[in-house]
Amino acid sequence: MKINHITQLKPDSKVIIFAFLQDENFETHLQKTCTDFGLNFELLKQDFKADLKEFSFIYSPQNQKVIFLGLGKKPNSSDIIKAFRTLFFKQKPNLPNDLTIDIQNLPDEYLEYVVIGSMLGGYDLDLYKSERKETAPIFKKEGFFNILSNNPKAEEGIVRGKYISKTQMQVFDLMNAPANKKTPYTLAKWAVDSGAKFGYSVTVLEKQQLKTQKLEALLAVGQGSEHPPVLIVMEYKSPEAKQKVGLVGKGVTFDTGGISIKASTNMHLMKSDMGGAAAVMGTIELAAKLRLPVHLIGIIPACENAVDGKSFKPSDVINSYSGKTIEIIDTDAEGRLILADGLNYLVRNYQPDTMIDLATLTGSCVATLGYHAAGMFTNNDKLAQNLTKAADQTGERLWRLPLWDVYKEDISSDIADVRNFSGKPMAGAISATKFLEVFTENHQNWAHLDIAGTAFGDTEFAPQRAGTAFGVRLLLEFLEMITK
Ligand code: BES
Ligand code: ZN
Ligand code: ZN
After folding, report:
1. 454 touches ligand 1 (CB under 6 Å)
2. In angstroms, what is the span from residue 34 Cα to ligand 2's centroid?
3. CB 410 less than 6 A from any atom of ligand 1
4. Threshold 0.90, pTM exceeds
5. Is 267 a pocket residue for ligand 1 (Cβ < 6 Å)?
6. pLDDT in tens, 16-47
7. What CATH fold (topology level) applies to the domain 2-151?
8. Which residues carry out catalysis?
């Protein structure tokens, strides 16, 4: 479909969407719209209060369908995106292939969110159905979105909105793919294809190279799977870059728990255990598409944590890229093992100014913050502040949790340098981060984001949980903030 910027309503418009904020101008705006289309303001205002995601529609005497969408009082960008996404998701079968969204009454910066939300409304989960639903006319090639706006930077907002939503949908696809269609090589191929398309370099270290380079923690976790592990290295470098930012994402394509096998009830959800990888891959693709003035390095340790005669076992002592030895207490605490190699590979080979890792790391983080916020760990107050600011802006909530050294004893081992689990059912998200810290070479500008509760969630767009692309807009906002 095409997205057009217009500054005047086309006379033949059949469907016009208006979005309203619940502010002091609400009634004036509503009244003007009613006058313009010959609608009864007094009756409509009893029905439509502009609550977030509320929507109504009326046919005008000229047979135009006028849709009213509420945005509530003070929506953040996620709220606006969700309101438009829900409207389009639900209404798409009833929409023609040409419509207008009038956002003249909204702040300029909303335009990008309106585009993202509208595009995401076209996303369907039925990837593997033998009979797929027919694409709604508005989302077909010949679909036309006309955005009516006085924003002087409308064209830029439209391009950004398109880029961001397209990448987010790619990330949804990656997250929602089942384990038999998604192996470490699938992630590697995605990165290679994306790099070729958008102009950044991707190197994939395969099993033999992982052995030569001694990424032994990653090899240990992957050794029980028929799909060999890989380390994906993505690098985008703008000629104007002043900052070098390293991102690491946990890429476990399926987490059975290994020999410390998980209970079966919710095990199928563990196809989403590569949410950190997907967020990093999406962010780098977007940074390259948008030509951000930054040097970005993305490291994805990818593997499958499987049950097999060859699987690593509790009590094993394994080596790692850093040279530190690790006693395995629980093979289900695998994310921290592959991140240990990923983080250490990043610091040693690239010395980034800032280093952020994202991982669906612990059930403990889900128990602490539920599905509404990710845990943020860092000893750097400035970094915490910047990430929080970015998170508040995008509506991808972060909540800081402590990293005090008293928790270090949880990971001390009698026979190796560290152990991968305390054995105690408490403070699990913190001790996991203390474990990661050991492999950061004391980097002073590092943050770990535990996205176990936010990467794969309940949405209105599917009866079951699905990928959210949590972290992509957040990291993009963060990168734009620090490179401004
Ligand atoms: N992938 C899981 C964490 C997870 C849990 C992600 C729920 C998303 C939703 C991770 O590898 C894991 O199994 N962690 C264990 C660690 C424990 C054995 C120390 C956990 O949190 O229970
Ligand atoms: Zn696990
Ligand atoms: Zn896991």
Report:
1. no
2. 56
3. no
4. yes
5. no
6. 999 999 999 999 999 999 999 999 999 999 99
7. Leucine Aminopeptidase, subunit E; domain 1 (3.40.220)
8. 262, 336
